[in-house]
Amino acid sequence: MKRFLTLMLILLAVLTACGGDGNLREGRELRQMSRALGLDLSAGVLARYEDSHGGFLGDGLTAAEVEIGGLDGRLGDIPGWRPLPLSENGAEALELVGGPEGVEEGFYYLYDRHSQSQDPFDDSDLHQRFSWNFTIAVYDSRNERLYYYEFDT
Q1: Is 21 a residue whose pLDDT tops 80?
Q2: CA-CA distance, 153 to 151, in Å (whole number)?
Q3: How far is CA 138 from the centre of its chain?
Q4: Which of 4, 6, 31, 109 is 20 to 30 A from 117 in CA distance terms?
Q5: Quick check: pTM over 0.90?
Q6: What mean pLDDT comes out for the span 31-36?
């Protein structure tokens, strides 16, 4: 019995070291983005995920790309999602986070999470403060790819 437990612990350690929890991590990240954007991304494939948040104040950038089709018909009915092109402030925000260029067909989502924001879906004051706290996402209908960014300074 002792030998069996030892072997199981070794196997668990090897699987963890080899990235055996990758699917769990991907699922957690997709659920986090789903909650933030108000839509179900569980059918998507996480193509990229980077998160530099940390430190005392939690500043940083989360950048992700999700391959997912069939969102076109649903996004127009979800609060906060608007058809492209981006607003002027939205375009500046997307440039600030290094978002994709040249996406012409699809939808975008911009949520101002700053403590001074009166209406989180109104981006008119987004660049009028000393710091940024926003979530922006762009869905490229042509390539069926969702670009997601959380930026906090």
Answers
A1: no
A2: 7
A3: 10
A4: 31
A5: no
A6: 96
Gap between the Cα atoms of 134 and 112, Å rounded: 4
- Mean of per-residue pLDDT scores for the chain: 88
Structure tokens at 19: 């990235």
Mean pLDDT for 66-74 is: 93
CA distance 128 to 102: 26
CA quadruple 20, 26, 28, 29: dihedral, nearest 10? 140
pLDDT the model gives residue 22: 46
User: Which contacts qualify for 50-55: CB closer than 8 Å, 24 or more apart?
Assistant: 53/150, 53/152
151's enclosing H/E stretch is strand 145-152
Count of beta carbons in the 10 Å neighbourhood of residue 148: 27
Q: Would you report the helix, strand and coil content of the chain in percent, each value rounded to 5?
A: 30, 30, 40
